[in-house]
TrEMBL record:
Transmembrane segments: 6-27, 48-66, 72-99
Alphabetical keyword list: Membrane, Transmembrane, Transmembrane helix
Domain of life: Bacteria
Name the UniProt record assigns to this protein: DUF1772 domain-containing protein
Amino acid sequence: MNTWLLLVAGAHLGFQLTVDLVVYPALRDVGPEDWTRAHAAHSRRITPVVGLVYVPLVLVLGWAAVAEPDDVGTWVAVAGGLLAVGTTAAVAAPVHGRLSSAGEDRRAALLDRLTRADRVRTVGAVVCTVGALLVAL
């Protein structure tokens, strides 16, 4: 279980850093004339990747909570993972929904909110990875 936890936490961290440092800045650079097409393409492409990262993350965190409930690293990993997944469900996904139909006048504020949410998700991914490292030690 320790190896799986470290693997999924590391994959999640890599995914979050890529979105935070590459994907969202590139999306922010899209001009108004290309916005609808670019955001739709982003949403279509990122959705399966989110599933590939988040489903194993949630499953392995659940497994870790059952298999290693006395290890503090387990709960650090679970807390970080839940922070990231919860922020995705409560903030990032709804903001993406609003972005798909937002006018140019609202887009910058929504992108700012999405960027802040993504920073929280990245912190969650870092905390999750630290917890996984603690379990592995």
